[in-house]
Amino acid sequence: MHPADRDTAAPDSLPTPPAPRGGWGRAMLLLGAAATLVAGAGAIAVRDLRQAGEAQQWVRHTRDVLAAVADAEIAVDRAETAQRGYLLVDDTAYLRTGAAGGARAAGALATLRRLTRDNATQARRLDVLERLVPRRLDGLAQTVALARAGRRDSALAVVRTRRGQAESDQIRALFDDFQADEQRLLRARLDAREAHGRAALRETLLALALAVATAGWSVVLLGRLVRRQASSRERLRAALDASAASEARYRALFTALPRPAWVYDRDTLAFLAVNPAAVRQYGWTEGEFLARRITDIRPPEDAATVADAARAAGDASLPSRQWRHRWKDGTLRDVEVSTHPLAYGGHAARLCVVDDVTDRLAAERALRSREARFRAAMAGMRDAFFVLRAVERDGAVDDFEIVELNGGATRMTGVSAVGGGQASLRRLFPTSATSGILDVYRRVLATGRPYEGEHRSHDPRTRVEWVWLQVYPLDGEDGTLAVIVRDTTARKRAELRLREEAHGDPLTGLLNRRGLEDAVERRLREAAAAGAPDVLLYLDLDGFKPINDAYGHAEGDEALRAVADVLRRAVRAGDAIARLGGDEFAVYAPAGPGGDADGDIALLTQRIEHALGAADARADAAGRRYAIRTSIGGTAVRAGDTLASALARADAALYAAKAERKRGTRRAG
User: Fold this and answer.
1) How far apart are CA 583 and CA 247, in angstroms?
2) How far apart are the C-alpha atoms of 506 and 45, rounded to whole Å?
3) I want to staple 431 with a disulfide (CB 3.0 to 4.6 A). Which of 189, 210, 458, 546 is the partner?
């Protein structure tokens, strides 16, 4: 017999009254069935809780994979950016950044290999990435080596020809596919975790409902039994029976509870009872528990504190408190224990209910650690970082409040304090509404898809002209965005300067042949839809060599610049003018309103000849000792033409004009 049963048994002097026929048998049968239902519901709840925990581990695993993918992609991008930065500004700091990016990429790929070794699809992608990334990084290193060896023009030529871009695009595509698959896995695993969590809550509530229903039914039954007793002795026996039934209800609830629970003596600290959940979780049998005290399941250094706290609690119920408990195998786990006073079998005792919070605390510590690393990284990065929260008006997103920013953002914008609804984009940067930035943020919120792109900055408060924008929706925080802004002004200006140098004639400021080719190529793509023919004029200066011979090359250069100025004034704003080399020029004019190519050639030739004659007259009056004459040949240009074929026809028309020795005559080809 259990000690509690001995202490609560009726005295021998009281005879046992007869129970109503069949009453107690039916009661015990139904109570046992109810207890079985409660225990079954509790077991199902434990199973669902365990499955929810497993699903949470897979969620963390998938997020770790996504973090490693992003880390590898950022590292490769940083290595490429460092190469371009070094070639453009010759700053050796970029070399260190590039080396760090390469090392970081290798480490991230190794992490991905470890995390996805059970995923055949991702493993195949990693096989390709582990070949492409080192090859791409090696190509970048070779380009930098050319520059460091004094062959910067060769290095820039490699960049301009976009050598290795196909590998870079393939690498980014593989990373995008990698992230897309993991995002799908993450969504599925989050759904599984939520489903198991809801099921566990449902089963726990069912167990509690069954327990309450069983208790209510028992009270009703005992009331009926009490009313059937005729004498005071029979009423006393009914009261004792009711006490026994209450004990049975307690034991049913105590046994079915899915969390570990026990009762201990407040004076001796010895275990008086333990439930099956405690036996399963801690590893000791019920007998081994009942032979111990509560201090025996604590680490030695905590035993004195536990004893003092138990005796000081008195008759008060205590809220949950964290302790360390020792399992039978010696493992130490973090637990939360809530305790309540009760009388148990004649003992002043306390009931303890235990939650194992080891995994939760570890997850919280890991989250705090990741957050600390993230904040340290954000604080140290040179790029600007913002956290924005949407501000709605009339049911639509009208503005974004800045809720967090790093030092890079302060340096870029001058904004140092945020919060309180005062730091919003419209208030601080009025041009954000007109530059399209707000539309980008709204689109990311609406679609949930990240965004990357380069934008022109229109804010006069900053020295930043071009920025590279990266926008990400924050999981679990509706209406909130993470924004990274990189100042690309220096790189963009350098690119534009290189483009101008590659497409311009340094003597006259006109286009060179390559610049004309690009302009004609763009125009011919448009002309394919328009249908009307454009016009190309080929100009050659007559008697230019004698100017160089008689007056020197400086005077010849001045004559070429004078012709360039005349052409700029003579043609329309949308016409392209180029110096092809030496004393040869070309004018490419889009089709006129009437679509008459011959008429356009004649009109444009006349305007150029008239402007050149007027300039010659002014120069003669100012004392110039020579005249500038030109021969002009023209041709119509249609969709499907190339610049080379059109120049060949215009050149033939030019030499026909020279043969006829008529100044300014044109021939249509």
Assistant:
1) 114
2) 80
3) 458
HSE-up (13 A, CA, CB side) for residue 596:
7
* Contact in structure between 400 and 441 (CB atoms under 8 Å): yes
φ, ψ at 469 (rounded to 5°): -105, 130
What is the C-alpha separation between 88 and 77, in angstroms, rounded?
16
The answer to whether residues 563 and 632 touch, using CB atoms and an 8 Å cutoff, is no
Largest CA distance in the chain: 149
In this structure, are residues 19 and 225 in contact, taking their beta carbons and an 8 Å threshold?
yes
Q: Please report which confidence band the pLDDT of residue 49 belongs to, taking 50, 70 and 90 as the band edges.
A: confident
Q: At what angle do helices 489-503 and 513-530 cross, to 10 degrees?
A: 90
Collapse the DSSP code of 474 into the 3-class scheme (helix H, G, I; strand E, B; otherwise coil) and give the result.
coil
Estimate to the nearest angstrom the gap between the alpha carbon of 296 and the chain centroid. Answer: 49
CB 412 within 8 A of CB 386: no
Phi and psi torsions of 390, nearest 5°: -65, 140
In angstroms, rounded to a whole number, what is the distance separating the alpha carbons of residues 548 and 167? 51
DSSP H/E element including 322: strand 318-326
Q: Residue holding tokens 């249509």? A: 668
Q: Encode pLDDT of 566-618 as tens digits.
A: 999 888 888 899 998 888 999 998 887 767 888 888 889 889 988 888 888 78
DSSP state for residue 463 in the 8-state scheme:
S
Residue 82 half-sphere exposure toward CB, CA atoms < 13 A: 23
| Residue whose token pair is 């539309």 | 439
Query: Would the pLDDT of 497 be above 80?
Result: no
CA–CA gap between residue 554 and residue 300 (Å, rounded): 98
Report helix, strand or coil for 637. Answer: strand
H or E stretch at 355: strand 347-356
Angstrom distance (rounded) from CA 158 to CA 152:
10
Tens digits of residue pLDDT in 464-492: 778 888 999 987 778 899 999 888 877 77
Task: For residues 48 and 53, give the distance between their C-alpha atoms in angstroms, rounded to a whole number.
Answer: 9
Give residues with Cβ within 8 angstroms of 144, minimum separation 6: 83, 86, 87, 95, 98, 155
Alpha carbon distance 175, 70 (integer Å) = 8
Instruction: Identify whether the C-beta of residue 325 lies closer than 8 Å to the C-beta of residue 294.
Output: no
Span 203-230, pLDDT tens digits: 778 877 877 777 676 666 656 654 654 5
As a whole number of angstroms, the distance between CA 194 and CA 217 comes to 34
Q: Which residues contact 288 (CB under 8 A, 6 or more apart)?
A: 328
- Model confidence at 4, pLDDT cuts 50, 70, 90, reads very low
CA-CA-CA-CA dihedral for 547, 553, 559, 563, to nearest 10: 110
| Cα–Cα nearest to 471, from 501, 443, 432 | 443
Contact 577, 567 (CB under 8 A): yes
- Please enumerate, as own/partner, the contacts of 121-128 that have beta carbons within 8 Å and a separation of 24 or more: 121/181, 122/65, 122/178, 122/181, 122/182, 125/174, 125/177, 125/178, 128/170, 128/174
Which residue stretches of 534-592 are H helix? 544-551, 553-570
- What band does 432 get if pLDDT is binned at 50, 70 and 90? low
Rounded distance, CA 335 to CA 558, Å? 90
The alpha carbon dihedral of 650, 652, 658, 659 has a sign of negative
Q: For residue 664, which of 562, 542, 581 has the smallest C-alpha distance?
A: 542
Phi, psi of 510 (to 5 degrees): -80, 175
Q: Dump pLDDT digits (tens) for 346-388.
A: 888 999 999 998 898 888 888 787 777 766 666 667 788 888 8
Q: Quick check: 399 and 425 in contact, CB under 8 A?
A: yes
Taking the C-alpha atoms of residue 498 and residue 613, their distance in angstroms, rounded to an integer, is 36
DSSP 330: S
